[in-house]
Design goal:
alpha+beta; 3-stranded antiparallel sheet; 3 helices; 3 strands; 31% helix; GIY-YIG_endonuc_sf; nuclease; GIY-YIG_endonuc
């Protein structure tokens, strides 16, 4: 099943957090409530800035690892690339905390 997403969130300290999920709305709510990822202890999620769809669990995990290895400049280029499907989805991109 290709229903897993790789996503990137811009954080309050300007860093970029990369993760995977099969339910982006639920995951965004979890991040906003500081549930799950320890990364959000001490920083807040600010905005969803990247979504890459069409993955199964395995390929999403592999892609997440690839993205996490990129430097910040490469990640910023990725946000502007055609791989970013954020504009094709009807989701709120701002995170309410």
């Amino acid at each position: 099943m290709a229903d897993w997403l790789v996503y990137i969130i811009l954080c309050s300290d300007g860093t970029l957090y990369t993760g995977i999920t099969n339910n982006i709305e639920r995951r965004m709510q979890q991040h906003a409530a500081q549930q799950g990822a320890k990364y959000f202890r001490g920083r807040a999620p600010k905005q969803l800035v990247y979504i890459e769809n069409g993955h199964d669990r395995s390929s999403a995990s592999q892609r997440e690892a690839e993205i996490k290895k990129l430097n910040r400049g490469a990640k910023l280029c990725l946000l502007k690339s055609d791989l970013n499907r954020l504009h094709t989805l009807t989701l709120p991109t701002q995170i309410s905390v």
